[in-house]
Amino acid sequence: MTNEEILQAVRQVEGLGGMTVNERLYVSGLMDEFDKSKIHDKVKAAYILELLQVDKPSIDKILY
């Protein structure tokens, strides 16, 4: 997926604040993309989490 496609997927989700990270990935349809990126492209994985409003300390724990 391109960054634009990821952005569009995130924009379609409402109420991210009350969800866990896994719920955010699932409802946005980005679970598989995130899992692949977590292994092969951590910058892209971080981008996905940032768009999903995951805080920086949590992103660091998840990815590193």
Can you give the helix content as a percent range?
Answer: over 70%
Number of strands: 0
The mean pLDDT is 96
Sketch the topology as an H/E string, one letter per element.
HHHHH
- Shape, principal axes of CA atoms: globular
Give the end-to-end Cα distance, rounded to a whole number of Å: 22 Å
Low-confidence stretches: none
Question: How many separate helices?
Answer: 5
Which class of secondary structure composition applies to the elements? mainly alpha
Bin the strand percentage. Answer: under 5%
| Main sheet overview | none
Tell me the Rg in angstroms: 11 Å
Number of domains: 1
Notes on the structure:
This protein has 64 residues and is an all-alpha fold. It has one domain (3-63). Helix content is 70%, strand content 0%. The protein contains 5 helices and no strands. The longest helix has 10 residues, at 31-40. It is globular. The protein starts with a helix and ends with a helix. The mean pLDDT is 96.
